[in-house]
Every structure is written in C-alpha cells, then in structure tokens.
Design brief:
By secondary structure, the protein is of the alpha/beta class. Helix content is 32%, strand content 18%. The strands form 4 sheets. Strands 1, 2, 3, 4, 5, 17, 20, 21 and 22 form a 9-stranded mixed sheet that branches. An 8-stranded parallel sheet has the order 6-7-8-9-10-11-12-16, sandwiched between helices. Strands 13-15-14 form a 3-stranded antiparallel sheet, with no helix packed on it. The longest helix has 16 residues. The chain is globular.
C-alpha cells in the first residue's frame, strides 16, 4: 500500500534545509533533521536525507539551528506597515509574525489627524508622518476592509491585530469629547463601540487593547497633553466591552495605572471567571524596575494565583535590559511627573528653553526628581545617565551627575537642564530603566505567567531598539548552559518565543512541524554573542529620512523564510521583498491551531 513516507520521498520540494538542529516550537526535544518545504508549508521533517533532485533552493544548515519564526506580541507598526509593509527590521531578526494595535492604539476607525494625535507623542512617531501615511493609504471604513487593505500590501511578516480602545472611543465620540473627564458616552455611543469590537472579532482580531496609564499623552493642538481616550472610560464601559471579549474568548491587553493600586488589582482580577467566563488578559508589564526593585518578585506569584483560581492571565515582559536613549529632554519617562510633562507639553523650542531656564520651574523639577514617594518607572538618578554625544566633547562619556560635580557641585537637575538649553536635541544620552539584574531576567524567563514580548517595534524610533529581543534571550540561555548554570533548556526558550505565544493568542504561527506554515529562521549559534548589543542607526525613508535605532545581527541570522520564501539570506533581502506579499493577516481561531501531521513524521518531534 502506498504510504505517506513513499510520497514524501518522491515529491519535489521547493526548498530543502539540510542537517540543521531543528526546533518545532512546542518545547519538545530538538534534533538534527532535514526539512522539506512545498507551497509554503512544511511537508517533511526527516532524520534521513531528502531527495534534492530538482530542488532549486537547498540550505546547508550543518552546525546551525532551524527555528520557527519568532512572534512579536507587542508592536506599534500600525503606521509603518502602511508605507513600508515589508517591516524589514523585524524580518531580518527572524520575526515572522507581529501583532499590531497595542496600548489602545490602532488606525482602523480614526481619521488621519486623530491618528497623528494618538500616535505622535505617546509612541514618539513624528506626527506629520502619521497623518501623511493614514491620509495616503486609508481606503477602509471598517475592520473587514482594513484586513483586506493590509492583505493588498506586499507584507513581509504575518500580521495579527488588536483593535484599540482609544481608536474606537475617539472615532465614536470625537477626540475632544473622548478625552474629557466630565463627558461620558451616550447609550448609542456605547452600543456603537460594542458593535465596533464585535466586528473586529468577527474579522479575526485577537482581541482589544486598552490603556489606563496616565503618563501617555495626546499630541497635536486641540487636545494636547490630555491622556489617551481609553483612560477616561468608566467601569461600566469597560465591563460592557470586556463582556464581549469574555463571550468570544479573546484577549484583553491592557496597561494599568501604576499610580493607583486599586486599578492594578481590578485589572488582575478581571481575568478571573467565577460565575462568568474568564477574561484572557495580557497586562503591561513585568519589569525589574530600578525605581521599585521589590515589585518584580510578586508578579509571578500573582499570575500563578489568578490562574490557579481559574483565570487566564499573563504579564508581558521584555527579556533584555531596558536601555533607552534620548535627544535632549524628549523621552516619555519625563511624562510621569509634573515638571517633565510641562516641558514636553511645549513644542516650540524657544518657549521650552525659556521654561527650562526659569528658576521656579527648576525648583519644581528638583523637587519631583528627589521625591521618593509613589510608584514610578524612571529611577530619577542623573548619576545613572551617560552622555553619548554632544557638541561639547568634554562631557561625552560622563553622567549628568558628574557634570554637575565638575561644574562646581551644582545639582544634577541643573546640570541636565543647562546642557539641554545649550545643545537641545544634539545632546544624546542613555540610561537603563529596568531589567538590569541578570538573575531576575533568568527568573522571569522561566515564569509561566509571563510572556516574552513588549518590543515596541515601530515606535520610539530614537529611543530604543529591541527588534532582536528573541536572539538576546537565546543568547542568555545559551551562555548559562555553557557556564553550567542553566535556567531554561534551549527547547523551552524557543517555545517561549514561538509556539507558546501563537497558541495563547490562537493564531497559525510559531511551530515548525509537518503541516505548519513554513515561517522559520536559520541561526548560527556561534554568533549569539556581544554583537547583539551593539548600537546601530538606519534611516527611515517613510519618515523623511529620520535616523532611528536598529539592530544588526546578520552573522547570527543566516536566513529567514515566510510562507516558504527566502525573505532574508546572508545579509540581503530577497528581490521580491517589499514588492510581493509573503505574509498574511492571521485571524484568531476559536481553538489553538493543530497541523495535519502524518503518522510517520509526527514521531520525529519526540525523538532526539
């Protein structure tokens, strides 16, 4: 009788990846295998050599690792994807699936100007380019048409999406009404928001993102410096939207108001079911914050406690040190206290400089800087902030605190403000806000209630670059294994970056078994090294040639495939990238995706 094994030995493959250490994304044992790809799917995973007759694309992966493509669960590519749908900075690091619509922000329903106001200041994407991109590309009127518009683009990676709470609220009420405390939506407006959310879920969105964090501010003129529309939603509005997510078993992604412990408790326990269906909840964010070093120790236990009671709760976590850069005073961390927000409120450089020179303002800034009370993200230590570029070379390499000492013992705040007034955005500096302790990174990476993600890819273009966060986690795991102090197996680490995320969000991604999508990367483990931490910049033509922070690890990632096509290889993109579509919109499924495995290939996932 003709068996599947006979079939795969006579078929002609589009691609054969030979002799690589294969990881299937489930956390099961890895093994040296030969992988056959045909028509965008994995059709063979074999310990025996595959017939390469007629195969035009053969990759020798001897000594290399072959992994499912990484899943990036937290991006702000909603604007960039419209003008540069290849999303090359993610592709080149092995990310083959990205989620749009984080932090209550999406471009589905709002118009161009409102999109600019929502994305410009919060995500540090130049407002005029947000407006220009939406004006040029928006043809859709609803979620279904939005998905069609995305799939008409030459997508590089696959996309999945949240619908943004601030998007539907601002589109329903108007941005001005949606950002006033005394204004509440009418019953008709609430019903319209419910309809928008339902239509998004019908179109395959993974859920809704909201935001309660109060130092995310609106850009523009009319509503400038108000917090995001979702922060004005009262409990009744949130309950009605959550009820839809509960019924459909879709995800609520949210950022709590860290200044209000009751808000955090409320959002954590919203994940519980009880008499209602549980609410699948992904909350921002698990971070080992320098300013509050004890908080991280309770996050894992909180998640375990809620899930034992029947919830389905996860924290999001960036598994690398959270190092940020800034040009002058333009950095979101200053939004968390009054004097910093007052400076960022002023767009005019002359007005801002006048404020920064004012002694009364400086007194308030010093008071805010020295305050040790209340939750905060930034450690507020200018001795822990290094100047990396400045027209005055004498200060490069020093902290602002040291500059103050050198200038006769002036306060670190005055040293910082003096340099900002003198040099403006030509003053570039950096600091690490969180995730600075390797032992805590190891602890979080092994915590089941924490998801690996939170890259913010596509946003904060001059402030940070975590496009390679998956590679950096693998390096951490690899180094620990070499040192004899393992905290995760490599199979577990790959699973955390791929299949675990895809299964939880219920999208067809993150696995590399027979029947799965052929979205993968070939990685050289010899280059899981310090090169992953190097500083690089590249211009974004879509944003007027703005130079943004990126990562460059072409020696580490040898090849990336999406839908079986080689989008990146040996440091170069395929000629078709940016012109032909390889990725697609991945619709959320009612149950986790299971490939149609065959009885011969399936056991290969369990043998070394």
């Amino acid at each position: 009788m003709f068996q599947y094994w006979d079939y795969i030995n006579v078929m002609t493959y589009d691609t054969v990846i030979r002799n690589g250490r294969w990881f299937d994304g489930t956390g099961g044992p890895s093994a040296t295998r030969n992988i056959g790809i045909l028509a965008g799917r994995v059709v063979a995973v074999s310990a025996e050599p595959l017939d390469e007759t007629g195969v035009h694309d053969v990759v020798d992966a001897t000594g290399k690792w072959v992994l499912p493509g990484f899943v990036d669960i937290h991006t702000h590519y909603d604007v960039e994807v419209l003008g540069s749908p290849a999303l090359p900075e993610s592709l080149r690091h092995g990310v083959t699936t990205v989620l749009l619509g984080s932090c209550s922000l999406s471009t589905v329903h709002v118009g161009a100007t409102t999109a600019g106001d929502l994305f410009g200041r919060v995500e540090a994407i130049p407002r005029q380019h947000v407006i220009g991109a939406v004006e040029e590309h928006k043809t859709w009127r609803n979620c279904a048409e939005y998905v069609d518009a995305l799939e008409a683009l030459p997508l590089g990676p696959n996309l999945a999406a949240f619908i943004g709470h601030s998007d539907i609220r601002a589109a329903t009420m108007g941005l001005d009404r949606a950002t006033r405390k005394q204004v509440h939506p009418t019953e008709h407006e609430l019903s319209r928001m419910e309809s928008m959310l339902t239509e998004a879920l019908d179109s395959g969105f993974v859920g809704m993102s909201s935001q309660q964090l109060l130092f995310d501010k609106v850009d523009g003129e009319a509503c400038r410096s108000r917090t995001l529309p979702s922060t004005y939603a009262r409990a009744g509005e949130i309950r009605r939207l959550n009820a839809i997510l509960r019924r459909r078993n879709r995800v609520m992604q949210s950022g709590p108001d860290i200044t209000n412990p009751l808000n955090i408790v409320s959002q954590v326990f919203n994940a519980l079911g009880g008499l209602r269906p549980h609410l699948r909840t992904s909350l921002l964010s698990a971070a080992d914050i320098k300013a509050n070093p004890a908080v991280i120790r309770i996050m894992g236990p909180i998640a375990r406690f809620v899930n034992r009671l029947g919830g389905d709760f996860r924290w999001q976590h960036l598994p690398v040190p959270f190092e940020v850069y800034a040009d002058g005073i333009d950095l979101v961390i200053f939004e968390e206290f009054g004097s910093g927000a007052a400076a960022l409120h002023l767009r005019d450089e002359v007005e801002r400089d006048s404020l920064l020179r004012d002694e009364g303002y400086r007194r308030q800034f010093r008071k805010d800087y020295e305050s040790k009370f209340g939750p905060r993200v930034w450690h507020r230590d200018f001795f822990d902030a290094q100047i990396v570029d400045c027209p005055d070379p004498s200060v490069i390499g020093k902290s602002f605190g040291q500059v103050g000492v050198d200038r006769g013992g002036i306060h670190p705040v005055d040293a910082f403000l003096d340099l900002v007034v003198e040099h403006g955005q030509k003053l570039r500096w950096r600091t690490t806000i969180s995730n600075h302790r390797p032992e805590m990174l190891r602890r979080m990476a092994a915590e089941p209630g924490i998801q690996m993600g939170f890259s913010d890819a596509g946003a904060h273009l001059r402030n940070m670059a975590f496009y390679n966060f998956g590679l950096r986690l693998l390096r951490h795991v690899n180094d620990a294994a070499k040192a004899g102090t393992p905290f995760l197996s490599m199979e577990q680490a790959v699973h955390r970056l791929t299949g675990e995320l895809a299964d939880w969000y219920r999208i067809d991604a993150g696995h590399l078994r027979v029947g799965d999508r052929a979205d993968l990367l070939v990685l050289d483990p010899d280059y899981l090294d310090a090169s992953l931490e190097t500083y690089t910049e590249a211009k974004v033509e879509q944003y007027g040639g703005l130079s943004r922070m990126v990562n460059r690890n072409d020696a580490t990632v040898n090849a990336v495939y999406v839908a079986g096509r080689p989008v990146f290889r040996d440091g170069d993109f395929g000629d078709f990238v940016g012109h032909a579509r390889t990725g697609q919109f991945l619709r959320a499924q009612s149950t986790p995706a299971v490939p149609a495995t065959d009885p011969v290939a399936a056991p290969l996932t369990r043998t070394a």
